Amino acid sequence: MTATVLGIAEGRALGGSLRVVVTRPRALTAARAAVEEVVAAIDVAASRFREDSELSRLNASPDRVVKVGPLLARAIEAALRGAELTEGAVDPTIGFAVRIAGYDRDFDSVPARGGPLRLVASRVPGWSAVRFSAATRTVVIPRGVELDLGATAKALASDMAAAAAARVIDGGGVLVSLGGDIAVAGEAPVGGWTIQASEDSGAELADAEETVSIASGGLATSGTTVRRWMRGEVTLHHIIDPATGLPVDSVWRTATVAAGSCVDANIASTAAIVMGERAPRWLRERGMAARLVDRDGVVHRLAGWPKAAESKLIPTIL
Ligand code: ADP
Ligand code: MG
Questions:
Q1: CB-ligand 1 contact for 247 (6 Å cutoff)
Q2: Which label site among 129, 142, 204, 213 has the fewest CB atoms less than 10 Å from its CB?
Q3: Does the beta carbon of 270 lie inside 6 Å of ligand 1?
Q4: Of 55, 51, 53, 48, which Cα lies nearest the Cα of 76?
């Protein structure tokens, strides 16, 4: 068996790391350009950190019927689908809650420390308050609701970017990672795409680290150890429990899930953090291979996730 020679490009995108890997190194420039185009389009459509994004304009127009572009429509549709599938554990109406907890700008610019905050626990408005029609691409968000598509839009960007890159490189395979939200498309290398399971997407690749492989679909990681900050003596982080509107106090600090697409993997990984003790059952019932790291750093592998020493292929259902 000959190992495939891969072409790898790295950079930054959507407030996190970007990695593009292709099985035909000569196609790397074209693949990267296709990825960057999708990423730029998602940013303009769905970023909560740019005033000129379509999402910011939507959030500034409560109680009105707003027609959105195809890309924002897809991101909203995926976010609402995620909310439905997880019974509201993943909910795009956490926008206000995550903003007042301190995550109100691109993460690199969020101060690591600051004075104490007074946060009051209160259930988020809830996804069923959002009226959305895919047919007419219209949305109405009630006053007081701020949509945040941070969980879904990045994963959707990975899926779309991998598909777009696979089209331009015509025949080879591609892997796209946006801050650890990974999608693959086209023909995978022999044995699948080997992926290091780290808690931080910026971690160096190292032989001693645990790996898994996928040949299709996506793999997503959500966690509370990287995007965190302190206000007063309290550590806050970016995953909100919709029931309280506060950063969730989860039994899991990191969740990695494989699925038929990065969007689905990401719905499940964010949901796992929010669901806490209920997550293993929810994941097993859906046959979603997952690797959960608990508060103490103990790793739990379930629903077909391979043991640490075997970089086995996880079959993902498309
Ligand atoms: P990452 O962005 O590291 O991939 P996730 O996919 O879990 O992590 O997305 C977390 C982001 O989603 C947060 O930064 C925030 O913008 C948003 N978010 C936080 N809590 C929730 C939630 N309960 N449901 C939906 N989106 C959330
Ligand atoms: Mg994610």
A1: no
A2: 204
A3: yes
A4: 55
**Full-model pTM:** 0.95
Q: Would you say residue 318 lies in a domain?
A: no
> What is the rounded average pLDDT of the residues 247-255?
97
Indicate which CATH number applies to the domain containing 180: 3.10.520.10
* Full residue range of the structural domain in which residue 119 is found: 7-313
| C-beta of 154 in contact with ligand 1 (< 6 A) | yes
Task: Name which residue sits closest to atom 14 of ligand 1, judged by CA.
Answer: 238
Is pLDDT above 90 for 272?
A: yes
Q: Is residue 109 part of a domain?
A: yes
Could you say which ligand is closest to the alpha carbon of residue 226?
1
Closest-CA residue to 155 (of 186, 181, 184): 181
Q: Is the CB of 181 under 6 A from ligand 1?
A: yes
* Residue 2 covered by a domain: no
Closest Cα to residue 179, out of 276, 42, 312, 68?
42
**How many distinct structural domains can be found in the chain?**
1
Q: CA-to-CA distance for 153 and 83, rounded, in angstroms?
A: 14
- Residues 242 and 318: their CA atoms lie apart, in Å, by 29
Q: Is the CB of 222 under 6 A from ligand 1?
A: yes
Q: Closest ligand 1 atom to the C-alpha of 271?
A: 23
